[in-house]
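tool=predict chain=A
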Amino acid sequence: MIKEPLLDKDAPWKKRFSAPVVLYTQLAKGAPSRGLAVGNQTGTMQLYAWDVSTGKLRQLTTRPEGVLFGEISQDGRHIYYMGDQKGNEKGHIVRVPFEGGDPEDITPDLPPYNVFNLSSYFATSVSGTVIGLVIPDSEGFHFHLIELGLKGKLGTQRQLHRSHKTLQHPKLSADGKIAVVCTAERCNREFTSLVAFDTVSGKLIGELWDGADCTIESLAFSPVKGDSRLLARTDRTGFKRPLIWNPRTGEREDLALENLEGELPTGKWSLDGERILLIHYQKAVQQLYTYHLKTKTLKKLNHPSGSFMRYYFMPNGNIYSQCKDATHPTRLVELDGETGELKRTVLAAGEVPEGHPWKSITYTSTDGQEIQAWLGLPDGKGPFPTILETHGGPAAVMPNTFYPGSQAWLDHGFAYLHINQRGSTTFGKAFQEKIFEDFGHWEVEDMVGARDWLVENGIAKPDQIILTGQSYGGYLTLLALGTKPKLWAGGIACGAASDWAVMYEDGVEEARASLREWLGGTPQEKPEVYARSSPVTYVASVQAPVLILQGRNDARCPERQIEEYEAKLKALGKPIEIYWIDVGHGAFSADEQIRDQEVTLKFAYRVLGTVFK
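tool=predict ok
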């Protein structure tokens, strides 16, 4: 039974949103006493200078809308972030000294540009001599180098490479003499090759690719000056696996991991360049390993349960990582570098009320494909009203993570299921690429399969299943409401896409390039694909009430396509509500996140026939 709605200021679910956390940290490899922390100690995500030896944090940004993405230079001198307006992700990259100070524009001579995630477009060298950055604009993608002088002073900027297709993930060797960037130039898909340049001469010195059907992506250069080895990953086996490539010599080594099946999509170097820290995924469950390069031996670490992110080696050989699970907020922990055992908590999270754990389950989709999902059950005996959520991306995966929104539903007596639908990473290339040129089709089938499983197992009431999702997950919510209208009690879409053609018209180059690669061309070249995959095509079939939470400054999912979707539903007399927020692609303040959750709770209670007092 749904519990009485908890709306007072001390409601347990609100405390989970407002609990102080350090969301992630970075270490300056060339100055490991310095780091960057991103946290909400003021109630809004901001950037902090982190004194690694003392654990003290010093706030560097005070932007009202918050800052989620930042990078510390590898020499520890500066913190970089996107100087945008109200979260619209458009402007110039700026930096502040580690000691604090006013922001400095690093590209003052360029027109404003959009950058969605700074780490995908920005890099510095351990030597502190050069910056590499990719700038997307209406003419394509431009790979720039900025020379740095004494104490990191900005020097000459020059273009190293440009392309009409996607360039991302620039990497610089520790001495700053080699630059590598991922490119889609070989064929019409993301990251099919790595190209390497000599940063002094600007000449192309190497390229690595595994064929037109494979993706290959750079991860990190060795942090040792003079070492030209690059850690990268390829999916030529059908799963993302690590390799080491030397652009100077052309030597390549695919790590000897034959006895470990599945995906190992990321890795980090030890500071002496002798070990690689790897993360292995099996059905969205993570396991850390270390790989010794000289002996070619793999070691499984005995670490705590939960999910790990932003992990890295420390100078003493131990490992720092953010650790979290469904009932524990993210905290920075130190793990023994040889065994993986927990040594201590470095940066703790604030206290939160006891929550409900998630359990990993698998079910069969409508075509027989096995799908992994995370299930949370409230107190009491089912069946329950149920929230079925899909994640954004689409190239992403949901691990066992601390998610206050899910606990808010569980507090109120809802069951909660978060699925890793097709298109998700870490389940192999065939699983991830099944959705290419067919957005939404198989993902919605996976949602239908999840619904069937929930009902058959006595978890969900068949007439009380509400869909929700953020970004691409919001898109899937809208699509499922139109293509499978009789199955859902309602839908809550956040930061959603409703019309891919309008998204392409209004989108920035990064988004347009991704759509060309994912959908096989432009709306003019593939009109049937864009129309078939767009929720707006199915507005006449929508039956359940719809709630959309959308940012007015969202560059990823611009407002016009949602306004047009709303107008078409209203013209047909369909029940739709829009909650406009003065943010970009998501809110970074606890107060706004709490308001958003209240809006969704009230909507769900109205949909299920329960009125708030």
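Residues 238 and 429 are 5 Å apart (CA to CA). The chain has four domains: 23-109, 121-254, 255-350, 358-607.
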